[in-house]
Each structure stands twice: as structure tokens, then as C-alpha cells.
Design a protein that fits this description.
The chain is an alpha+beta fold and 380 residues long. The chain has 2 domains: 1-18 and 75-258, no CATH class; 260-380, TATA-Binding Protein (2-Layer Sandwich). Helices cover 28% and strands 27% of the residues. It has 12 helices and 17 strands. The chain has helices at residues 5-10, 14-25, 32-36, 121-134, 164-167, 169-172, 227-240, 245-253, 279-291, 314-320, 323-328, 366-379; strands spanning 83-84, 90-91, 103-108, 111-116, 139-143, 148-151, 154-155, 181-191, 197-211, 217-223, 256-257, 262-267, 270-275, 295-301, 306-311, 338-347, 350-356. The strands form 3 sheets. Strands 3, 4, 5, 6, 7, 8, 9, 10 and 11 form a 9-stranded mixed sheet that branches. It starts with a helix and ends with a helix.
């Protein structure tokens, strides 16, 4: 089991002293919550009020359709009405002859994404947000206007031993005892031209590695994304949307391969990519490819065909999650350069991808050309 470098000595001296002092100072309180909220309501001791009686001189109001509640409108985040599949499931998707479960899975190499039939991103967003929250994740990005939802870096608590230190000091300083691994998931929601919604999940991971002869220091290293974990998340997501475990595994096993050849076009304005597929499909695949590089999508404008991205420093984010980072760090991120990745139709069933500047002209900088190279590697 790995401890953060700070805790290698803090566990022996400062944190134990802090934990012991806090434990003694809280003596006489049943829980930490009792100490923090001594004036909370005692619901167990509350008495039931007497029932209300209608005065004898009042008559019963005439209840008619004029007073009926208006029909429910499914707004963003509201409960979407579900359809019943031939198998009897109440599914979020709309079943059809091709998709009796109202959804299916598509793949491009080891990348998979879920297609929910007959539902817009607005109708999907609420259940999708519930899915992550019900599974214990905190969302650091919840932007339905861009279709991007991302969890915060989550510690894999299953890797932490249930020892005396964890049961005592760990209860007071939960963030101070680390499993040495962090995972983050990024969800991208896209509308398709046929009225369906594409949902993709990208996994990112970091691991704290002990260094030095006495293992008293450490550094964070990136771990490869886990396609199997991404597939498992999509399988669980389908169950949230109304399928059984067996049905969701069946759709995952029957993922429909989707892909197109990618060619590099070397022009006077720098390199661009030509994808032999229409805009809708190319837009989705470019978004997936960006998620699998070290660039983070800040915003996107589908109508203009622009992804706004910047270089992502995962290690810097994790350092801010440490003990001193939580106590003293500023929430203001350091400014980084933003790039504009342009996806636009070039010809029938051909889409061009490149990096442009704020004026829409080709960006010929070395960093921009590096993005094109990374996209080419991911899309192939």
C-alpha cells in the first residue's frame, strides 16, 4: 500500500499528533457531526401534530379540470418518459426495428460509445448526471451547453487497507491517507443527424510512485487509459438507462464497427487531415481523439465546427489535491494557450480537420502541427 510522500513522515509525527489532539478534543460528542452542528433538529424526538379539521361552515370546493395540474414537460434534467421494449424493459431509448432495446454500441478500434435512439442530449443529461453521482463521483464539469461532463480525480478507496491508522486519524483527515491512484472520467454527449444521441466515456489515470533509496519521496506518473474500464462504465450506464446486465453485455459484445480512412494533406498552410466520412461522424471521432491526448476540450461549437482545447497538465492538478494543496493553494488556474481545432465538410462524405487561429486562418505553429499529428495517430 502506498502513502503519499508527505505522509511518510507526517504519519509518524504531525498527523498522529493532530489526530490524537482532535480525538481528545471531541470527547463527549457522539460524532464529529454532533460537534459541528449542536443545534440540529432531533427528528426522533419530534411529536406528531394533531390532524387539521375543516370548519363546519365551509363547503368542499368544486374540483374540476380547471384546477388540474398542467401536463409534465420534460425539461433539461427532468425525468424522461421511458419506452417499453419487446423484452419488457422500460428503456430510456426509443426501440425500433434495428434496435429493439432502444440503443446500441458502436466501436472504432478499442474505442466504444453508446448510441441512444430517439433522444436528444437534453433528455439524456439528467439521467447521465445521476449515473455518475449515484456511483460516488463528484462532477467538476457539468456543461450541457457544450455536451461535456467530467468527474473530479477520484481516489480508488478499494486500495486502502482497513488498518488502525485509517480507522482513527483517517476519519478526521480523510484526504491525508492516499491509495496512491487517481481516476477521472470524461463524458462527451453529441447529437446525431437522425435524432439519436452519442455518449462516449474516456478514462484517465495517475499513479503515485515512490522514489529515492529510502522511498521517502514520490512523483505522479500517468497510467494508460483502460479501454476495458471504459466499456464497463458504458455497460453500467446502459443498465441505468433500463437494460438488464445480460442485455447490456450483449450489446457491448455486438458493438458495430465504425471507422474511416484518414489521410494527411500537406498544404501551404500546414498539415490537415481528411476523413472519409460525413461531418456528424467526423465530429464525434475528433472529439474522442482529443479526449485521448493531453489536450482538454474547454468548449466546443458544433455549428462552427470548432473545438477549443488547451494542454492539460494532469500532474499539476493532482498536486493541488494533496494535503498542502487543499489547505493553501489558489483555485485560480495558470493561463495556458488555447488552440482551435476546426472540423468542416470538404466534399461529399469527406471532412477536413485542422488547427486554425482566431481569424479562422490555418495555424502553422509547431504546437498546432503537433496537435494534427496526435489526432492522426489517434484516428488511425
Amino acid at each position: 500500500m502506498k502513502l503519499s510522500a508527505l505522509l511518510t513522515h507526517a504519519k509518524r509525527v504531525s498527523v498522529v499528533s493532530l489526530g490524537a489532539g482532535a480525538l481528545f478534543s471531541l470527547a463527549g460528542c457522539d460524532t464529529l457531526n454532533d460537534w459541528l452542528a449542536p443545534d440540529r433538529v432531533n427528528y426522533k424526538a419530534a411529536e406528531t401534530a394533531p390532524s387539521l379539521a375543516v370548519p363546519s361552515d365551509l363547503t368542499t370546493a368544486d374540483i374540476s379540470q380547471r384546477y388540474a395540474a398542467p401536463p409534465k414537460i420534460n425539461a433539461l434534467g427532468g425525468a424522461t418518459e421511458r419506452s417499453v421494449t419487446p423484452a419488457g424493459n422500460a428503456t430510456l431509448g426509443v426501440p425500433n426495428a434495428q434496435d429493439p432495446f432502444g440503443m446500441h454500441v458502436e466501436s472504432d478500434g478499442d474505442r466504444r460509445w453508446l448510441v441512444v435512439d430517439g433522444r436528444s442530449p437534453d433528455q439524456i443529461w439528467g439521467p447521465l448526471k445521476e449515473f455518475w453521482e449515484e456511483n460516488g463521483f463528484t462532477l467538476k464539469s457539468d456543461a450541457p451547453q457544450t455536451g461535456i461532463m467530467a468527474t473530479d480525480w477520484a481516489e480508488n478507496r478499494a486500495n486502502i487497507p482497513n488498518d488502525w491508522f485509517r480507522n482513527s486519524v483517517g476519519k478526521l483527515l480523510d484526504f491525508a491517507y492516499s491509495s496512491g491512484t487517481r481516476d477521472m472520467f470524461r463524458t462527451q454527449v453529441d447529437r446525431a443527424s437522425d435524432g439519436s444521441t452519442d455518449i462516449s466515456v474516456t478514462h484517465s489515470a495517475m499513479e503515485e510512485v515512490l522514489t529515492g533509496q529510502d522511498k521517502t519521496s514520490s512523483r505522479w506518473e500517468a497510467r494508460p487509459r483502460n479501454p476495458q474500464l471504459e466499456a464497463a462504465v458504458l455497460t453500467k450506464m446502459m443498465q441505468k438507462f433500463g437494460l438488464t446486465e445480460k442485455q447490456s453485455q450483449q450489446l457491448m459484445a455486438q458493438a458495430r464497427p465504425i471507422g474511416a480512412k484518414v489521410a494527411v494533406d500537406q498544404g501551404a498552410g500546414g498539415s490537415t487531415l481528411d476523413l472519409a466520412e460525413p461531418f456528424d461522424r467526423a465530429w464525434l471521432r475528433v472529439g474522442l481523439a482529443l479526449d485521448r491526448t493531453n489536450f482538454t476540450v474547454d468548449n466546443r461549437d458544433r455549428d462552427k465546427g470548432i473545438y477549443y482545447v488547451h494542454f492539460s497538465d494532469s500532474m499539476a492538478e493532482l498536486k493541488k489535491d494533496g494535503l498542502f494543496g487543499k489547505l493553501f493553494s489558489s483555485n485560480t488556474p495558470k493561463p495556458t494557450r488555447q488552440f482551435l481545432v476546426n472540423v468542416r465538410p470538404k466534399a461529399d462524405a469527406v471532412t477536413q480537420v485542422g488547427v486554425v487561429d482566431a481569424n479562422g486562418q490555418p495555424d502553422t505553429s509547431s504546437d498546432a502541427q503537433r496537435i494534427v499529428s496526435l489526432l492522426h495517430a489517434q484516428l488511425n
